[in-house]
Structures are given as structure tokens and as C-alpha cells.
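re: ur msg from earlier - yeah i can do the S-adenosylmethionine complex, just paste it... oh wait u already did. ok heres what im feeding in:
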Amino acid sequence: MTSSRRTSSRRTSSRRDGDTWDLASSVGATATMAAMTRAIATRADDELIDDPFAEPLVRAVGIELLTRLATGEEPPGDLVGRAAIDGAKVRTRFYDEFFLDAADTGITQAVILASGLDSRAYRLPWPAGTVVYELDQPEVVEFKTRTLAGLGAEPTARRRVVAADLRDDWPAALRAAGFDPARPAAWSAEGLLGYLPPEAQDRLLDTITELSAPGSRVATESRPNPRPGEEDRTKQSLNRISELFRSADFDPDMAKLRYFGERNEAAPYLAGLGWAVTGRTVRELLAAHGLPPLEEDDLRMGEVRYVRGELTK
Ligand code: SAM
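and the outut:
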């Protein structure tokens, strides 16, 4: 990608079956925005998050505004509110601890679904022999591999890239990369479920379960279903955020990227598949880490639950 891309390369259009993207367009741009937020949170330096690769990865994608935010040249101001920054801290910490706890129990296969610009394969102290599978759209995973290699970064585990679409036959691609379903694995689906249609979310959780040997672990987010009229407020909020970015010359159009409507909540759905599920809401995690509570919360971020499950079947 270029170093001076001003806006997302393609205008955001509504989601459709089989759509694809890179890190500057459609759902791919949300991965760059997540990394930009991690770069800001890392600079806040309060020991919850240390992602030294977030900033150079965002810079390499080349969306000018996101680069300026990631490097600190542009203050986060209203564009990236405190809720988003503190949210990135507790979310990153949650998944870091999830993988390290799983590794402590002897699990040597980690599968990061929808890995985006996640750098855990390069920054976590994985025990020797751990294989980390990173799955995302081809342009996303290939870009990260190329960029981090160019920066001289070395993975801290045996990293295997799986270029696949989670709406297609991704298990075949995962097995082809060496994944062994007979051995326990630790799975994450971070920042992903809302970008899948409801039935694709169920299929994903079903498939993870089918591929999981006893002792496997899973971590994801579980959102409450919308109350009547609430989705309209969520869309308005997303549109307000998108408008702020658009006025600064970047067009994420976030309301178009998510799938709305009723869906199964991930935590009870996983429990129904046999996982022993525990979790804490964002509100609880912020309090546990001594961070201030959320003020305005149109998106019900405080009620999102980060959950982990263990399969004891
Ligand atoms: N997990 C990363 C993080 O937390 O930084 C990225 C989160 S980003 C909000 C959403 C990610 O989901 C993007 O990297 C996108 O490419 C990926 N994604 C969404 N739908 C997908 C699909 N059908 N197949 C593969 N990847 C998908």
C-alpha cells in the first residue's frame, strides 16, 4: 500500500456475500482502526497494553489520518474517545491473558481468527513449540507478513498464516496449514462477530467446537441483543463517528459494515455447545483495572462481555 493514502481506497458499500477487502477498505479498515487505537493506548503507557507493532503497521497501511493518530501527530480528541482507548486496553489485556493462561496449561496450538493487525504472534512470550495460526482475508494476512518482515520483526512462536474467508471452508485451509484437531487449541475471535451475518456467527462457533479436542479454550465477545429501537440509536452513533472521520478525510462508514438484527448471544450459545463459559463486562474490566467508567454509551459498549470457555467434553 502507498504511504500517502488519504481515504479508504474504495468507497464503503453495504455488505454482501463473498465481499473482499484490504486493510484500507470495508471491514479491513476496521482492523487498521483497531491497531491505531492500540497504538494510542500503548503510548498511554499504563502497563495494560504494550503493542510496539501497532504504530508501524498502521503507518504502512498508509491512511494518512490513521497514521497521524497512531503516531500522536494528531491528538485523539473526539475522533478516538477515551472509551475507545480504555476499551482497547482492557480488550487487549483480556486476550493476552487468555492466550498466556492457555499456554500455561500446555496448549501448543493457538488460532487467532480474523487476526487483522493483531501482533500477538510477534510479541507474546509463547512457550517453545507453540504454533500460532493467524486467519484473515488474503490481502490482510499477506500485508502483515510482508510489513513485519520488512521491519525485521521475528515471530515469537511458529507462525502459520491462513488466508481464508470465515464464511467459506476455512477449516480445510486451517488443517492444510498443519492444525491438528486431535490436540487442544486456544481460539480467539476478537472484534469479529458483528461483521458476520447471524447464521455465519453460529456456524463459526459450531465449527470451532467441532475442531476442538477436550481441554480446548475459546475467547470472544458476547453482546446483548438490542432492545426495541436501540439499533437505530446504534446506527446514529456509528454514523456520528463516521462523520467525524469523514470530515477529517477518511470514510469508514461503519454502520454499513456491521450486520444488524437479532442474533444468538455468543456466551449462552457456546455454553449450549458444551463450553464452560466465564466472562466479565467491559464495565467490570475497566473497574478491575482502575480505569474510569464510561460516560456516554450509546453503543452499549459497557455491556459487552469478554468471555472465555473451556471444553471439558
Ligand atoms: N482481531 C483484530 C483486532 O482485534 O485487532 C481485527 C479486528 S477488525 C475489527 C475485524 C477483522 O475481521 C478484520 O481483520 C477483517 O478482515 C476480519 N474479518 C471479518 N470478516 C471476515 C471474514 N468473513 N473472513 C475473514 N476475516 C474476516
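cool cool. The longest strand covers residues 275-281. ping me if u need the other ligands too
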